[in-house]
Structure formats: C-alpha cells, structure tokens
Amino acid sequence: MYINNFKCVINDIKRTPDNVPYKNILYWNGAFGHADFYLGFGSKIFERCEVRNCFTTDNRCYLPIDQFDAVLFHGREYIWETQDKPENRSQAQVYIYVNQESPANTPKWIGSDNFFNWTMTYRLDSDIAYTYGMYKNITTNYKMPTVEEVQQKSRKIAWMVSNCNPPSNRKTLYEKLSKYFPIDVYGACGTMSCPREDSNGCYDLIARNYKFYLSFENSICVDYVTEKMYSALNRDFIPIVYGGANYSKFAPPNSVIDVSKFSSIEELAKYLKSLDEDPKKYLSYFEWKKHYIVKRDHKTALCDICKKLNEPLLHKSYDIQKWWSDGMCKVGDDLPKIVFT
C-alpha cells in the first residue's frame, strides 16, 4: 500500500490495558492547518470519558483505510473536486462531516449525496454536537462585583470585529445602536487596537473598562453561537447577542441580552440605559454565575464520538448540502426585523 509515494507499514490492531480493541479514528484533511482538528492525537485524550477505548491519528498508514472505524473530514475545507478521497471503504466504518463554520461561510457541497454517515457540527441535531461552548448547573464560589466596581467602569460598549460586512448585516445594528451609546470598536473594522493573537488579554481589558459587549455573529443560522458569546460570559460584562439561535439553549438564564427580543434599536437602547443607570439591576445579569459555569472545550464531543462508535452501528447517509445548508440561515430581507426598524 502506498500513500504519497511512501510505502505504508501497517500496524497490528492495538488493545487497551483491559484487552479491548481500540476504535481507531482517522483525521483525513485537518482543520485550518491543525492536523488533529483541535481535538488531539492518541488515546490519552479519551482518559476522562465514560468510554475510553478510542485512538486518533492523521497517519493514513496506521491501518488500511477501510479498517478505521471512523474518518473525519473538515467540511469547511474538504473540496470534493480537488481533494483526495479514500480508495477503499467499508460498510463497518463511518465518514463524519465536521464543521464549526456556518453554512454561509462554507463552500457548496457538490460531492456524493451519500458520502457522509454522521455529522459533527455546532448544530444540536448533529449526530455529535460540537458546540463552541456549554454551560453546566453547579454551585460555584463566584464573588459578585460590587456596585462601586460597576460604577468605576468608564466605558459603555465594546466590540472586537475584523469581518466588517458579513451576511448577518451586524454592521447596520452597530451603526444604529451607536447613535444612542458610544461604542468602541477594536480590530480591523474600528479605530481601537488590541493584539488579535491575545484574545484573552483583549477580553480582560474589556472586562476592566466596559459594561457591555457586542457578541454579534457573522451569520444568522440555526444554533450558530460562537466563542464571541462564551468568551464574554466568562468575564464580568454583559454580552449583547445577535444570531439565529435560541439562546436559552446555549446560555445560562438571564446572562445575555438578545437583540431579537426587542422591537427596535430604540427599545434596546432604552433598556441598556436602564441597566447602565441602575447598578443593582445591571448586577442581576451576574447572579447566574453562582449556579452555573461556562466551559469551552471539545471534551464532550470527543467522548460522544467514542461512545457512539461503541454502540451498534446504524447505517445511514446524508445529502449533506440539503441537511447542512437548505433553510438554515437568514440573509437579506429574511434577516431579523430589528435590522430594518
């Protein structure tokens, strides 16, 4: 067997210390330059999972391709007509479509309608939910900011953004809201600067100086909630969210201000002003932190892959273009009404 002109040395099937064969997972094309899909290599990454007999690699020579239990393809970058495909395929393995970008930012799929068996995306109806974050009900030792600390914040609203004119038309909302409040814009679309490679430092800077943050998504798509919200929730300022998700499924109760719940920007601005002028009312948006934590990691998705691979295999396939894209995003005149009021 040859791959890229190199002779493959096939390994023996490895077993866990309990003598259970590993479920072997192959990363086919990597994700944005990360061969491990940001998930990690080997078997140690599954050590904290309920089911742990899984192993990941990007080495196509590790086993014959059709002997891997699962093959992951990064849907955002896997272009059917230009990229290589597995030569052999077994009915006993699954091909998994992986994507955390929105359909609006994903090239149209023109490949085989039955190529993929499972989906692993941010959408909650995926076979494996691969969300940008999650929240968990747990008692914490969170210490609320004081009224004095809130009053010491000298700025109102911040926004970090580099994509200035995405399909969501978030720029229009920003322009309308900025008539009521000063908004400091960091990044390529504004006049303020903060090192992009130090996003945590930038969010910490905002937490020290601002009361609100615009967590506006670039696409208005079903379940599409990115790190823009979760990074904000881990700090002491209030995210103002704009997207296509039901935020009650993605954010703790009373933790975000959803733009779509307001009939107009004027109504939204009046509400923000009431929070700005009443520190106790403002601080009510942090009460959730006593009872919930927000996490950003891929452990849940990893564990779900391994668990699912150990269950009886259900043979199915997807028309991925239809499932992933059709009717999943709003653009143009279909955007939320608040854009036009």
Task: Tell me what you see in this structure.
Helix 2 links the parallel strand 10 (155-160) and strand 11. The strands form five sheets. Strands 4-3-5-6-7-8 form a six-stranded parallel sheet. The chain has a five-stranded parallel sheet with strand order 11-10-12-14-15, with helices on both faces. The radius of gyration is 23 Å and the shape is globular. By secondary structure, the chain is an alpha/beta fold. It contains eight helices and 17 strands.
Quick description:
The protein has helices at 147-151, 170-177, 199-209, 227-233, 265-277, 279-283, 299-309, 320-325, and strands at residues 2-3, 6-7, 23-27, 54-57, 70-74, 94-99, 118-121, 128-129, 134-137, 155-160, 183-186, 210-216, 220-221, 238-242, 257-258, 292-295, 329-330. The chain is of the alpha/beta class and 341 residues long.
Descriptive keywords:
6-stranded parallel β-sheet; 17 strands; 2 domains; alpha/beta; 5-stranded parallel β-sheet; Rossmann fold; 19% strand; 341 residues; 19% helix; 8 helices; single chain
Q: What is the CATH domain class of the largest domain?
A: Alpha Beta
Just name the CATH architecture of the largest domain.
3-Layer(aba) Sandwich
Class based on secondary structure composition and strand pairing? alpha/beta
Largest sheet: 6 strands, parallel
Number of domains: 2
The CATH superfamily of the largest domain turns out to be Glycosyl transferase family 10, C-terminal domain
Q: Could you tell me the number of beta strands?
A: 17
Q: Beta-sheet strand percentage?
A: 15-25%
What ranges have pLDDT less than 50 throughout 5 or more consecutive residues?
1-6
Order of helices and strands: EEEEEEEEEHEHEHEEHEEHHEHHE
